[in-house]
């Protein structure tokens, strides 16, 4: 292209950054005065799919640009952390608003590669000029993470720009690595078992959102995946069970809340299906969430049970600051039902 754009936007999770990403960024630099690197899945807890913090991923980009292109090139890059919404319209609107604040409304390009079904987001921004990239030698962050988890001390130098191999080796020595690696192994084992079915396996779960006097009831997960993270009481729906019954059963099992099911049913105020394809590391998982609003000043006593390590009433007003502690999309589920209180 001959026209130089004001800014070129490049969206990704970069978990981790590899040479394909870096080649795309160099093309973006040739097409625009500035390059906006959008760091997706920002402010989420470490998981096997997203093992690196926002700050670590920005540091990878800065180190690679400085080492391979120099400080002058680095001065033309902006790094924009972007949280998940599991709602395409909200996510696209938020990204467009933040890019406009950073680089203006005119002369904006969007660069990327239509790799697979997950690349649909490239079609969401009609006012931005699309710069389509080809396949970058089949490089994949998924394959790099697999090698990293499975013990490769020296990642292939053809995968990543220098000095990222050294950075990855250092991160592997951090105290959190062992837990993430063990979770990766466990989830892969489960997926291998599911892979023997004659059709793609899909899970059905039910969650309970319980509010009482400005607080919501949460558990801290005891098992994999998401060990130690805050979550809504919930779990898998049994074969002969209705979804609402599953939400009440899981609520009782995980929190030992002493309230009759009939009373809880009378306090049901809303419900919604959460079905984003990427919402769970376990594979395609549909969750029906039920919102019970208790009319009580004193919240009922709770005690952890089943696969919950802890059960607690948490002020709704504190949830926004605890997003990085939340399991999968449970923060977004809470936003759906008590979002007005969360963001005041």
UniProtKB/TrEMBL annotation:
PROSITE patterns: NUDIX. It holds the Pfam family NUDIX. SUPFAM superfamilies: Nucleotidylyl transferase (SSF52374), Nudix (SSF55811). InterPro entries: Cyt_trans-like, NUDIX_hydrolase-like_dom_sf, NUDIX_hydrolase_dom, Rossmann-like_a/b/a_fold. The keyword Disulfide bond does not apply. It comes from the Bacteria. Keywords: Nucleotidyltransferase, Transferase. Gene3D superfamilies: HUPs (3.40.50.620), Nucleoside Triphosphate Pyrophosphohydrolase (3.90.79.10). Residues 200-337 form the Nudix hydrolase domain. This is ADP-ribose pyrophosphatase. It comes from Sulfurimicrobium lacus. The lineage of its organism: Bacteria, Pseudomonadati, Pseudomonadota, Betaproteobacteria, Nitrosomonadales.
């Amino acid at each position: 292209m001959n026209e130089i754009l004001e800014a070129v936007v490049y969206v990704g999770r970069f978990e981790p950054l590899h040479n394909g990403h870096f080649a795309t960024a160099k093309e973006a630099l040739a097409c625009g005065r500035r390059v906006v690197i959008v760091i997706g899945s920002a402010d989420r807890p470490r998981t096997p799919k997203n093992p690196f913090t926002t700050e670590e991923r920005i540091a990878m980009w800065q180190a690679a640009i400085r080492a391979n292109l120099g400080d002058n090139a680095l001065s033309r890059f902006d790094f924009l952390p972007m949280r998940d919404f599991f709602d395409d319209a909200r996510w696209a609107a938020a990204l467009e608003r933040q890019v406009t604040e950073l680089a203006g409304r005119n002369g904006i390009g969007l660069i990327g590669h239509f790799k697979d079904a997950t690349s649909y987001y490239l079609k969401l921004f009609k006012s931005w000029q699309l710069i389509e990239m080809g396949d970058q030698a089949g490089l994949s962050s998924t394959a790099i993470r697999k090698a990293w988890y499975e013990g490769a001390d020296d990642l292939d130098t053809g995968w990543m720009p220098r000095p990222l191999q050294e950075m990855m080796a250092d991160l592997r020595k951090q105290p959190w690595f062992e837990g993430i690696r063990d979770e990766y192994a466990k989830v892969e084992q489960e997926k291998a078992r599911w892979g023997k079915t004659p059709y793609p396996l899909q899970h059905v779960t039910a969650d309970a959102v319980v509010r009482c006097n400005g607080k919501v009831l949460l558990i801290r997960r005891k098992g994999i995946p998401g060990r130690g993270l805050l979550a809504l009481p919930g779990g898998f729906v049994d074969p002969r069970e209705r979804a609402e019954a599953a939400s009440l059963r899981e609520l009782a099992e995980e929190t030992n809340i002493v309230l009759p099911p009939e009373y809880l049913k009378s306090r049901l105020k809303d419900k919604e299906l959460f079905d984003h394809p990427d919402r769970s590391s376990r594979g395609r998982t549909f969750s029906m969430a039920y919102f019970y609003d208790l009319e009580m000043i004193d919240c009922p006593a709770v005690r952890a049970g089943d696969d919950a390590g802890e059960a607690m009433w948490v002020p709704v007003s504190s949830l926004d600051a605890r997003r990085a502690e939340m399991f999968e999309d449970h923060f977004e589920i809470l936003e759906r039902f008590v979002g007005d209180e969360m963001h005041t």
